Amino acid sequence: MEIFISGDACISIYTALCPAKDTRPMALEILWEMWQRGRKLSKRDWTLLRVAVVACVHDIYFGRLFFGDPDTQQVLWDTDARPSDATYLALRAQAPIYVKKAVWDACSTPLRNSSTWATVNYIEGQRE
Questions:
Q1: 3-state SS track over the chain
Q2: In whole angstroms, how far apart are CA 77 and each of 2, 30, 46, 100?
Q3: What predicted TM-score, i.e. pTM, was given to this entire model?
Q4: Cβ-contact 98, 17 below 8 angstroms
Q5: Dist CA 103 CA 22 (whole Å)
Q6: Residue that wins the pLDDT comparison between 40 and 1
Q7: Mean of per-residue pLDDT scores for the chain
Q8: Average pLDDT of span 6-21
Q9: What span, in angstroms and rounded, lies between the C-alpha atoms of 77 and 108?
Q10: Cα(81)–Cα(61) distance, rounded to whole angstroms?
Q11: How far apart are CA 60 and CA 14, in angstroms?
Q12: For the residues 66-91, what does the mean pLDDT come to?
């Protein structure tokens, strides 16, 4: 399943995967730092338990963030999120990312039929 990510979310995900020195924080990184500070000040540990892509309407994906108790894995609250933003937060929190079966069945594409496959082949060809 291909979900195209651009802009600040793309840069934030790249920075999370490939840290660089002396970069200015993007909006998602500021959100992450605020959340981490709030967790320290709070009497509860609001852990991001998981992220899910739950719907696709007119080629727009919808995600949810599930927060809760890290010991019991009980979800205490959840909220709407763009899958790109949710992916960044999941990477930082080391939380799993799920895709609802109905979304997967309707939107998934074999890798060899995707535009990503052509890009990977192009990059690999450039390395030779």
A1: CCCCCCHHHHHHHHHHHCCCCCCCCCHHHHHHHHHHHHHHHCCCCCEEEEEEEEEEECCEEEEEEEEECCCCCCEEEEEEECHHHHHHHHHHHCCCEEECHHHHHHHCCCHHHCHHHHHHHHHHHHHC
A2: 28, 21, 9, 18
A3: 0.74
A4: no
A5: 39
A6: 40
A7: 84
A8: 76
A9: 28
A10: 10
A11: 22
A12: 91
As a whole number of Å, the end-to-end CA separation of the chain is 28
Joined together, the tokens standing for residue 118 give 């052509």
Written as six digits, the tokens of 57 are 């309407």
How far is residue 100's CA from residue 116's CA, in Å, rounded to a whole number? 22
Structure tokens at 6: 């651009």
Inter-residue contact 49 to 68 (CB < 8 Å): yes
In 32-41, which positions are buried (b, 16+ CB within 10 angstroms) versus exposed (e)? beeeeeeeee
Angle between helices 83-93 and 27-41 (to 10 degrees): 50
Q: What is the largest CA-CA distance in the chain?
A: 55
pLDDT 10s digits, 14-49? 777 777 766 777 788 888 888 888 888 887 777 999
